[in-house]
Design goal:
By secondary structure, the chain is α/β, with parallel strands linked by helices. Helices cover 37% and strands 23% of the residues. It has helices at residues 7-19, 22-29, 33-47, 63-87, 103-109, 113-120, 173-179, 228-236, 246-254, 284-295, and strands spanning 52-54, 59-61, 95-101, 124-130, 144-148, 156-161, 165-171, 193-196, 206-210, 213-217, 223-225, 241-245, 259-261, 268-269, 272-277. Strands 7, 8, 11, 12, 13 and 14 form a six-stranded mixed β-sheet that branches. It has a five-stranded mixed β-sheet with strand order 4-3-5-15-6, with helices on one face. A hairpin with a 4-residue loop joins strand 1 and strand 2 (59-61). The chain is elongated and about 75 Å long.
Length: 308
Amino acid sequence: MNEKPTLNDLAAFTAIIAHRSFRKAAEELGLSPSTLSHMMRGLEARMGVRLLNRTTRSVSPTEAGERLVARLGPALRELDAALEAVDDFRGGPSGTIRINTSSIVIRRLLEKAVPTFLARYPDVALDLVSDGRLIDIVADGFDAGIRLRESVPQDMIAIAFGGPARFITVASPDYIATRGEPLVPQDLSGHDCIRLRMPSGKLYRWEFERRGEEIVVDVSGPLTLDDTELMAKAAASGLGIAYVPQHVAEDYIRQGRLVAVLSDWCPEIDGLCLYYPGHRHVPTGLRAFIDLLKEIDGKLSPYSAGRE
């Protein structure tokens, strides 16, 4: 190896591995895919070893690439932390804050939190990534995640906001008039239920609890969706009973297009948490975003895209 690779080359390599895609990595880095591909060919030439397996449809690390990225990831994150620590002396938050959460959470944050934050801190950019999967935010290069408390890894520092959450069972008045109202969760076996497919591919089983009695129902029905807002819309159209976050159904309920059923079997649960690793330096921008969430706490309705 005659020439050491540059920091930009190594950062680009880790981005390709994280996304398993030249196109997505190029978008993140603000480069063209052809430029990024040229950079990787140069990196491999300088290191004297092939790092990537390329096909027309995919890209993956070779054994040498796997070994390199395993050592590079922590080193690059530590470098970012060192630079962020110096930023503390600039007098105000700056840089980019990457947060992983679900699309429904992002839609709610866009109503109040995001506009307020960007107006208050013009030197900070928010990179909000919607993902239904529960990922390792550290390994995937995120500063923080937002999930229901029950889904937050135990080794993370979690900041609760927005109050408790609640999942409710809803159907249209016409459906109830035609098919009758379920009085206990077991009655759902005789109904058309709109099922939720999780990002893992599994079908979500509906969870109920009343006075300490817990019931999990593997519902059936002619329609399966992967989005709770679409489920609420389908239920409002009379296609069956849906089990969705209360926030998702509220507008339909106010309009009289949905009614809640089995309400006494749908208690509140712990709501959302913003979480981040405790062993890393917390960027000033992330601290400012946390402070803002605390400031507007109570003005954000509880919500979530689903539970794995």
